[in-house]
Amino acid sequence: MKGLPLAVSLTIAVGTWWAASLTFGAMLVPTPASVCRELGIMALQLETWTTLAITIARGLTGLVAALACALVLGVAAGSSPTAMRMITPLVAALQSCPPILWITLLMVWVGTGSTVAVTVVFASVFPPLFANIAQGCMALDRRLFDMARLYRIPKVRMLARVVLPGLAPYLLAGLSYAAATSWKITAVAEFLGSSTGIGAKVFWAYRMLEIPRLFAWAGIVILLGVALELLVIAPLRKSAETFTGKIREQA
Length: 251
Description:
87% of the residues lie in helices and 0% in strands. By secondary structure, the chain is mainly α. The chain is globular and about 70 Å long. It is found in: Cell membrane.
């Protein structure tokens, strides 16, 4: 019975899709069957997998770069009010710029290609990662640090037993959002500023009025985000919460 809600949701979604196709015509809204058939054709083409690899590499590069910077600056801001006052305005300014503005500026400065997609992903996912990590640092029990200094507990052990478990839920919550967002942002950047990748394929499907293929590529973007959340982020988040609970019980 656990899968019943999911089955009901999928049934409603597919039913609504079919109704939209019947209402507006298959030219504008292709049927689920035609999109699935297109996906089957694409799965047999090497170009499809190359395109996926390009988009995934760009998204991961931007995400990893943003995570590395967010860890350094987030820990600094969460540990020091002065650092928080210095860094927060810069992060707020970065967050206030919409992706389309970054894409336009980067196309002017560096032309089209991977640099545009990677930079836009970084600019889009860095602020929420930074905010979560800084919040996690501020939520750590300062008395534990005082006890560590009093009993001269090694910093490496303190980091492994207190800091990382305390940060893990905040970090993974931000990473979950950032990972899901990065694929969408990458596709948008490729649509406007690249000749390769999923976004570029969506653009050419639109230009050539290949609507079933356009829907197929859109579905692939969604499936990538869902697969990442279910197979990677959710298990990590659950493990982090369990580990954090054990550490708090021992404390």
